[in-house]
Amino acid sequence: MKLFKSLLTATAVAAVCLAGPAQAEDKRIALVVKALGIGFFEAAAKGAEEAAKELGDVEIIYTGPTDTTAEGQIEVINALIAQKVDAIAISANDQDALVPALKKAMDRGITVISWDSGVAPEGRQLHLNPSSNELIGNMIIKLAADHLPDGGDVAVLSASATATNQNIWIEEMNKVKDNYPGINVVATVYGDDLADKSYREAQGLMQTYPDLKAIIAPTSVGIVAAAQAVSDAEKAGQINVTGLGLPSEMAGHIDSGASKSFAIWNPIDLGYSATMLAYNLATDKAEAKPGGEIPMGRMGSLTLNDKNEGAMADPFTYDSSNINDFKDIF
Amino acid sequence: MSVTANETGSIERQIPDRLKSPAQRFLASWELLLLGVAVAVFTLNSFASPYFLDAWNLSDATYNFTEKAMIAFAMALLIISGEIDLSVASIIALASTAMGFAVQMGADTSVLILVGVGVGLLCGAFNGVLVTGLGLPSIVVTIGTMSLFRGISYIVLGDKAYTGYPSSFAFFGQGYVWWAVSFEFVLFVLFAIFFAIVLHRTSFGRLVYAIGNNPVGALFSGIQVARVKFVLFLLTGAMSGVAAICLTSRLGATRPSIAFGWELEVVTMVVLGGVSILGGAGSIPGVVIAAFVMGMVTFGFGLLNVPGIVMSIFIGLLLIAVIALPRIARQVLARRRG
């Protein structure tokens, strides 16, 4: 069905392009994601469309490679430069490797911002963090500790070893873990954001550490795979899977008890804010400079630090009390 | 490999009454069919997007295939000889990691080039020794080294990245020789000419075809099969090293996941270019056109913001169609002849 939809979209896009640039005055903002077909980014695209509707004269190009590779994103960026889009808002697969391509985009007058997963400062005008890394790092271990009053062994199941954001969060988590006495982080494994690999890594953790009490997966792919692995091993209730996930994908695991709670910022808000920021920069309504404040519609405004980075909002905890309200949204 | 082909009867050996003229052969050739596809893709793209026919845009588009094509030339020779190398993308990762390490040690651009090509050669030699020295099947050996080479990169780098390449090094992947003609594209053309001459105009090229068509026969004809194959593995390794230099220079950074999955795209390019996966047949011009077709399709779809998965489906269908069509045509013709 998804495939059919993609093909339909492709045909529709081709038809629109054949019809010629009818709305030539619209600002074209490209929302570039790590890879297409990931629930989180589909939700962000919804937020971008919401912002476009609110602004009126904006056309959103939602695009990204098939695999989460820097090379794939560079091909996408080259195609966007060729189309002379007005702005590129990207969630990067690699903070360094995209810099030459994005520099080229900026040289040709395109506004470039990064969001979610950042690009090195010389490759973008500003970076929008969904939350502050400190808060997320603290949140993921707090989620595990909240359900372990007597302490115990916990393990981390991350995305790929090169994923920018996951690495920062784990680093921040390690900084504050002494605030949670009795919580013992025994291992960090990498599921590469692939469902099958994450599942096998979670199984491996359960076999290697029989006393494991919680698995922290700060990735929407990893957390679902880990919860599934825990359910399949009939250890729901003994091992709590937590971390960052999508309500729609985690609802079943909250019901089964494999996961007691998890957190995420709202990706709809994130896509919305990224679009607003890109629009305000592209139309010269605001300037990206340290200390600057850039409005982002209903989300307030973004305050930039000395590296031109800003945080959108605090992460939000989902559990059995509120999951049903959110599972149909994203 | 041709022995199995004979057993299944999929390849017929006939002695014709009269050889076809070069013009006739060209009209019935794979290259012409591919050229038709390339022209069709180019024309469709020009109509589909107002941005396609722009020198700088087309120049940017060549980066979609130049590095992969350089490996594909060497891979074509290897596949024609009846072997394959699936470790090429991992060789890129290892060569790039070695170059990144050299930068940390204070190496300048000329040393980096030596390191890149050198590591490529070493990896190629390692594959070559295992295949020709120990007589192991190349598909198994290179699936093994595919994990091995990239694994070393992961051990060295982990979640880190090597950056800080000297600014003169950026020329290889980002520089322009003249106007919109990039250095990589010039390199691509030079290597295309080099490999076309080696395969089609030298005795070494004849040996490659002979080995691919009948390795046992070639051996008994006094051809040093093992030595020729070893040289081909060396060449493929060296070209992977060259691709690693270009890609690393273009990205300006090395991570162990660099060029992930490229081996399949390189093999797709070679097969689409008309090289028989069973060995013994194929040409460099075919691979060159296939590279353009793949690059053009990727870029054209990119301009229309078509999702990547649809591109993969299209390339897959194209591959099956281009391979199936001549065979279907042959069967129809054979049936008509009765």
Q: How large is the radius of gyration of chain B?
A: 21 Å
Strand content of chain A: 15-25%
The CATH class of chain B, by name, is: Mainly Alpha
Order of helices and strands of chain A: HEHEHEHEEHEHEHEHEHEHEEEEH
The percentage of residues in β strands of chain B lies in: under 5%
Record field, number of beta strands of chain A: 14
Percent range of helical residues of chain A: 40-55%
Order of helices and strands of chain B: HHHHHHHHHEEHHHHHHH
Strand order of the largest sheet of chain B: 1-2
How are the SSEs placed, and which strands pair?
The complex is a heterodimer of chains A (330) and B (338).
Chain A: H1 2-18, E1 27-32, H2 39-55, E2 58-63, H3 70-82, E3 87-90, H4 99-107, E4 111-115, E5 126-129, H5 133-146, E6 152-158, H6 164-176, E7 183-190, H7 195-208, E8 212-217, H8 220-232, E9 240-243, H9 247-256, E10 261-264, H10 267-282, E11 293-295, E12 301-303, E13 309-311, E14 316-319, H11 323-326
Parallel strand pairs in A: 1-2, 1-3, 3-4, 4-5, 5-13, 6-7, 6-8, 8-9
Antiparallel strand pairs in A: 10-14, 11-12
Helix pairs in contact in A: 2-10, 3-4, 5-6, 7-8, 8-9
Chain B: H1 2-8, H2 22-27, H3 30-48, H4 55-62, H5 66-80, H6 88-104, H7 109-133, H8 138-157, H9 171-174, E1 176-178, E2 181-182, H10 183-201, H11 203-213, H12 215-220, H13 225-251, H14 262-272, H15 284-303, H16 308-337
Helix pairs in contact in B: 3-15, 5-10, 5-11, 5-13, 5-14, 5-15, 6-7, 6-8, 6-13, 7-8, 7-13, 10-11, 14-15
